[in-house]
């Protein structure tokens, strides 16, 4: 039996090979929530850090099954890319979310603060939601349906600011992803597809949740179908999508020795355009102050460390060069120290996506410029192809993405 939430490439590939034969029955089973989540892949922590790649999942799936028999599965795999592309073209939505989070936190009344803390600790008024809050804190994972129910309960029943709920998820989820998380919360709130909210309903819970998990479950009456009504929220006016940042899809030809930077937005340098490189040193950076700033849970930090250690070991063997894990106050500082020590004039990395790592890029570039070191950021060709398709809703996106994956 493979790991519950595989964090290394080896474990992720094992889980994937175990799950691949079941992908044709995914559509029928995926919405059912059971203990240990047997009907879904549980690959999101590995996919989010790119310990395993969507491209690999898509290729393997279509090598084994016909597209119509696994279309729902491939659609879900591509939802992550859709959200990523959508946010790459609207980076201001991430910035607005982070700003609103600070304001909403400051504006909470004492009563709201107490209620929010109780809900996060699994001590709110609805037992099944308490179960989800505790499961999230204990495992760093929730089934997709549970995420939808919980987010809807937070926003439309408790009427708490969606940004604080998104932050609760972001602090704990092993797969916490600036695009999938922020935009899914906006979607439940009715801000992503304007006017379309997702409402949690008792009948839906009873249909899809394993019966024994709902037995003796006080508070369900608060979720009766005709009881939950949408909270009407306002959001900044939408702007049209901008072309995503333009990154080369091929690694630069460097003649002097250079370094390879690994970060948790892409931990698979041995597959793709960076695989041909010959770096003289490889580094990843961890930063306790950054973890504290985002108030990341212990489980989430451990996940990062496991995934980074795995990527360093793999890439050290693949590229046959020394690796280092820098602990520093900031990523910029860690890269600066490493580049200075190794006398690097160039560093190559996959371009981070909109989110905390990309937010640090201006500071990283400034610090590296002090020692005349240049940062080269590369994007995978399939990301470039797919991201620009996320101009509007998912289904127009999928029409085009479907044609690409079946090429
Ligand atoms: C409120 C809310 C918050 C969410 N926050 C995150 C998050 O921070 N990070 C994250 O990766 N996903 C997030 N999701 C999406 C989804 O819930 C998870 O990707 C999925 O549950 C991961 O479990 P799995 O790997 O077992 O999924 P499976 O059902 O096995 O799906 C396989 C893969 O497809 C992708 N996928 C499936 N469903 C979705 C979806 N709805 N949106 C985007 N990608 C999807 C994921 O990469 C997933 O690993 C969120 C959804 C909601 C409703």
Automatic annotation (TrEMBL):
<dbReference type="InterPro" id="IPR002081">
    <property type="entry name" value="Cryptochrome/DNA_photolyase_1"/>
</dbReference>
<feature type="domain" description="Cryptochrome/DNA photolyase FAD-binding">
    <location>
        <begin position="73"/>
        <end position="198"/>
    </location>
</feature>
<dbReference type="InterPro" id="IPR005101">
    <property type="entry name" value="Cryptochr/Photolyase_FAD-bd"/>
</dbReference>
<protein>
    <recommendedName>
        <fullName>Cryptochrome/DNA photolyase FAD-binding domain-containing protein</fullName>
    </recommendedName>
</protein>
<dbReference type="InterPro" id="IPR036134">
    <property type="entry name" value="Crypto/Photolyase_FAD-like_sf"/>
</dbReference>
<keyword id="KW-0285">Flavoprotein</keyword>
<dbReference type="Pfam" id="PF03441">
    <property type="entry name" value="FAD_binding_7"/>
</dbReference>
<keyword id="KW-0274">FAD</keyword>
